[in-house]
Amino acid sequence: MILSRRRGAALGALCALALMVGACSNETSGSGGASSGPRTEPSLSFVGPGGETPTAADQLSLTPEERQKVKDGEYSAAFVWHEGSALTKAVESGVRKEFDQLGIKVLASTSAEFDAARQANNVQTVLALKPDLIVTIAVDPTAAAAAFKPAVDAGVKLVVMTTPPKGYKSGEQIVGIVTADLTAFGKANAEMLGKALGGKGKVGYVYHDADFWFTNQRDKAFKDWLGYLYPDIEIVEEAGFSDPARTEDIATAMLTRHADLKGVYVAWATAAEGVLAATRQQGRTDVKIVTNDLEANLAADMVKGGNVAGVVANGSTRLGENLGVVAAYGLLGKKAPELVVGSPMAATKDNIADAWRDDYGQEPPAEVLGN
């Protein structure tokens, strides 16, 4: 989810983070392959959950005077997260880095573990500490609209990663939204899979089958760019899922039906774990997998030359720094872009160390490097 989308419970909650049972699949005839007419280059544009227009993160800026004004304000903040994964911790480390430079004191950091009621309780807990701002991502956008109303009424500045409470608008109830460039994820995945397959072959498309703007746009961008860049790569089967725990069964059936399958796109890393398990179970070392959200097990398989050909990483620490800057906009009363997007990074065997540092702000663990 930024937003990823990391467990079955995550996505069930956010889609009701779908951010993150059963699956539906159907045979397609060359849906990702060559077309009879001229191909049109896909658009790299997209919109936010409320139709917000993206602004590149490099357009954010604070003058030295503005930074000093924030420091002089002796402001405080709290984190009200949806869950406590490595991704969330990496984002928070980026925010804290920016807050340290701005003199913003962190009062608390809470995790709802994808429970909307628990997030509502966490809002009340941190409000008792009287923070000037809250950094958050909604577990359930509808429930969050009511849960965060006391914060809005109290004048607390809300800065959102990826998913805002339903009906909350940038510049009104929230300062702004910060996420990653969604269509860039799709294009990068298409490029990595195309390269891994030498530009031709049959592939499967395992997408997030829920109404969730973040994953929907990433998935669609992959499909559009694959068809445009690699007309000799054919999507022979599409399968949707709502529960990542079901993807091993989906992939097993897909591999059984298509002995000549050479690649699979999966919406995000947790779901890709099931696809990887299915390829291993069937001894299909020839099948290449691409997905989103850098994660240790998939990275280790990639480094060892396994099934995973590439993973698009979120740039989580950079995303966190952007959240910190947008928070400063709110404290200053400075109008922030309604949707700030950072660029993801395509992680492959060749650049895994750099990608890991960019995503998590630290050196990759030994198991990722194959040590």
UniProtKB/TrEMBL annotation:
Statement: the UniProt record of this protein carries the keyword Signal: yes
Source species, domain of life: Bacteria
InterPro entries: Peripla_BP_I (IPR028082), SBP_2_dom (IPR025997)
Major location category of this protein: other
Subcellular location: Cell envelope
Gene3D superfamilies cross-referenced by the UniProt entry: 3.40.50.2300
GO molecular function (one): carbohydrate binding
UniProt GO cellular component terms: cell envelope
Keywords, alphabetical: Signal
Signal peptide positions (record): 1-23
Region (Disordered): 28-58
Stored PROSITE patterns: PROKAR_LIPOPROTEIN
Annotated ranges, domain Periplasmic binding protein: 84-329
Similarity field: Belongs to the bacterial solute-binding protein 2 family.
Protein name, as recorded: LacI family transcriptional regulator
Organism, scientific name: Micromonospora tulbaghiae
